[in-house]
Design goal:
With 496 residues, the protein is mostly beta strands. The protein has one helix spanning 19-28; strands at residues 43-54, 57-65, 75-81, 88-94, 105-106, 110-113, 116-126, 132-141, 147-149, 163-175, 178-187, 192-199, 205-210, 223-232, 235-243, 259-266, 271-279, 287-293, 299-305, 319-320, 322-323, 327-332, 335-340, 348-358, 362-368, 371-379, 385-392, 398-403, 408-412, 427-431, 438-445, 448-453, 458-463, 472-477, 481-490. It folds into two domains: 12-340, 5 Propeller (Tachylectin-2, Chain A); 348-490, Jelly Rolls. 2% of the residues lie in helices and 51% in strands. It has a six-stranded antiparallel β-sheet with strand order 24-35-26-31-32-33, with no helix packed on it.
Length: 496
C-alpha cells in the first residue's frame, strides 16, 4: 500500500538551513517557559517514554515534534540527570528515518536487560488520514550512552487479527525469567483493550492474547493508551489512559483521562482481579503517565502535562506542553497516592515562613512569585468555604476552593485572561474528607501548577498562562481559619 504523505511528516534531518535555530530563538523569548520542568526548547512535547534509572543516571525520553506546536512526525527527545533535579539535554535519541517507523517513533518504555537499556517503541505507519498500521521496535542504549536501533527491527510487524492499526505504547516487564509486552489496542469493534506478547529473551515475541482486565468500562471507550504495570506494597497496579470515557460525577471531565487499577495480575491466565479503580489526577492537563523504579527502587512517575486536541496559548510561540515533576507513588488506605519526589527539595533557594488567622469573609496575600514551592497547613477550620488563589492579580487568579459542607475540593481556572479548553469546562473537582486540619503542597513553574492535597490523596495538574503581573498568592475563607505556610523559591533545573 502507498504510504501517506503530508508536510508534517519530516524529521530534523529534513530541516531547512537555520530553521531549528530560528525556532529555538523564537520560543526562548516566551515568559511561560518552565524553569525546572522538562519541556521542549521548541516544538511540541507529549508522552514521557523510556523512563529509567540506568548506569547511575535518570533518563527521560519523550515524544517530540520539532517544527511547530502540533502533532506531526514524532521523535524521541532525551534528557538525563543524576539527581532528578538538574537536567541535561542530550541529542535526539530516535529519529524516525526507517520504513518500519515511516510516520513516527511513537511511545514506549525501557527495561534493563543484560546490562543494556532496551528501549521498546511503536513504529507508526500511515496509509491515509485514518488508515494505519503499527510495528513494535527496539533501540538499545549501551553503558556509554550510545543508542542504536536493533538491526532486525521490527520485533513485531503489524497487528494481530481482530484489532485495528491502533496498537501502540509497549510496556515490557519481566516475571519469573520471561518477558511480557503490554500494548494499548483497539478491537475491530472499536472498543479499547490491552493485549500481551511474551518472549524468552526480550527480542523474539509471540502473541499471548488479550488481558482480561475485568473493568466495567463503557463501550464508549474506544482505545486504551499507554498501559503501565508495576508492583507496589504487595499489590499489582495498572495505570492506563482510556479514550472515550464520559464525565461521571467528579470524574472524567477531560477529553482524555487516566485511571489506575489495583488488584492481582495472573500473567499465565491473562486475568487481572480488580479491587478498585479510580481517576489518577483530577486536574485539567495530565495524560499518558509512565512509571519506573528509582535509585532506591521507589516507584516514580512522570506524565505529560498537556492534553490532546486543545489549543494552548503558547502555540503561537511554536512550542507546547511540558512534563510533570517526578512523583513518588505509594498505596495508603487502599488508594494510590502521589507525592513530589523528595529530590525536589534540592531546588529550594530562599525560603520564608509565616502564619495567618482569618476571620469571616476575609482574605490575605502571603507572597508572590512565578517559580516556587508552597507548603500550607490549615487548622482550626471553622469555615464552610476556604481556599487558595494562585497567579492572583486584580483581574486574574487560579482558585482552589474547599467546601466543608459538600466535602469537596475544586479547581477553577475560568478567571484567567488566557482561558482555554472551555469546551470541556473550567472547573475540576473531587470528593475529599475535610476536617479541622488540611495539608496542601503546591509547585508553581511559570505556566504550570501541581497541587498535592493531604500527602497526595488528591492531586491537580493544570497549565496556566498568566499575565506578567499575575504572581500573587492569596488565602481566603468565609469563617475562622488558621494557616501556617512556608514558601520556597526554586532554582532553574533545565535550560530554557
Amino acid at each position: 500500500m502507498t504510504r501517506y504523505t503530508e508536510p508534517k511528516y519530516r524529521t530534523i534531518f529534513d530541516a531547512k538551513e537555520n530553521e531549528l535555530e530560528q525556532l529555538r530563538e523564537k520560543s526562548a523569548k516566551s515568559p511561560w517557559k518552565p524553569a525546572y520542568h522538562i519541556h521542549p526548547q521548541y516544538g511540541l512535547i507529549n508522552d514521557p517514554n523510556g523512563l529509567a534509572y540506568f548506569n547511575g543516571e535518570f533518563h527521560v525520553f519523550y515524544q517530540w515534534y520539532p517544527f511547530d506546536a502540533m502533532h506531526g512526525m514524532k521523535h524521541w527527545a532525551h534528557a538525563k540527570s543524576k539527581d532528578l533535579v538538574n537536567w541535561e539535554r542530550l541529542p535526539v535519541a530516535l529519529v524516525p528515518v526507517e520504513d518500519y517507523e515511516s510516520h513516527g517513533a511513537y511511545s514506549g518504555a525501557a527495561l534493563e536487560v543484560d546490562g543494556k537499556l532496551y528501549m521498546y517503541y511503536t513504529g507508526n505507519i500511515k496509509y491515509g488520514p485514518v488508515e494505519r498500521s503499527a510495528n513494535q521496535c527496539l533501540a538499545i542504549m549501551e553503558q556509554d550512552g550510545t543508542i542504536t536501533k536493533y538491526d532486525n527491527n521490527p520485533l513485531i510487524e503489524g497487528v494481530p487479527e481482530g484489532y485495528t492499526g491502533h496498537v501502540r505504547d509497549p510496556k515490557v516487564l519481566e516475571k519469573d525469567g520471561r518477558y511480557y509486552m503490554l500494548l494499548g489496542a483497539q478491537r475491530e469493534n472499536l472498543t479499547g483493550a490491552i493485549i500481551v506478547y511474551e518472549s524468552d529473551n526480550g527480542i523474539d515475541w509471540s502473541f499471548k492474547g488479550e488481558l482480561n482486565l475485568k473493568l466495567d468500562l463503557p463501550d464508549s471507550v474506544y482505545m486504551l493508551e499507554c498501559p503501565d504495570y508495576f508492583e507496589l506494597n504487595d499489590k499489582d497496579v495498572i495505570v492506563v489512559s482510556p479514550q472515550g470515557l464520559k464525565p461521571d460525577g467528579h470524574d472524567y471531565h477531560n477529553i482524555y483521562n487516566v485511571i489506575y487499577v489495583l488488584g492481582e495480575l495472573n500473567i499465565d491466565t491473562l486475568t487481572f482481579e480488580v479491587e478498585d479503580y479510580l481517576e489518577l489526577d483530577k486536574g485539567f492537563d495530565f495524560y499518558a503517565p509512565q512509571t519506573f523504579a528509582g535509585k532506591n527502587n521507589e516507584r516514580l512517575l512522570f506524565a505529560w502535562a498537556g492534553m490532546g486536541e486543545i489549543d494552548y496559548p503558547s502555540d503561537s510561540e511554536q512550542w507546547a506542553h511540558c512534563l510533570s515533576i517526578p512523583r513518588e507513588l505509594d498505596i495508603v488506605n487502599g488508594k494510590l497516592t502521589q507525592k513530589p519526589a523528595r529530590e525536589l527539595e534540592q531546588l529550594r533557594k530562599d525560603s520564608t515562613a509565616g502564619e495567618v488567622d482569618l476571620e469571616k469573609g476575609s482574605s490575605v496575600t502571603i507572597g508572590s512569585g512565578e517559580q516556587y514551592e508552597l507548603e500550607l497547613d490549615f487548622s482550626k477550620v471553622g469555615s464552610t468555604q476556604f481556599g487558595l488563589e494562585l497567579f492572583a492579580s486584580e483581574n486574574e487568579g487560579l482558585v482552589l476552593e474547599f467546601d466543608r459542607m459538600k466535602q469537596t475540593v475544586s479547581l477553577n481556572r475560568e478567571k484567567l485572561a488566557a482561558a482555554f479548553g472551555g469546551e470541556y469546562g473550567f472547573v475540576r473537582s473531587s470528593e475529599l474528607q475535610i476536617g479541622e486540619t488540611l495539608k496542601v503542597q503546591v509547585f508553581v513553574d511559570r505556566s504550570i501548577a501541581e497541587i498535592f492535597i493531604n500527602d497526595g490523596e488528591v492531586v491537580f495538574t493544570t497549565r496556566v498562562f498568566p499575565k506578567e503581573e499575575s504572581k500573587g498568592i492569596r488565602i481566603f475563607a468565609d469563617g475562622k481559619l488558621n494557616c501556617r505556610y512556608q514558601k520556597h523559591e526554586l532554582a532553574q533545573g533545565i535550560s530554557i
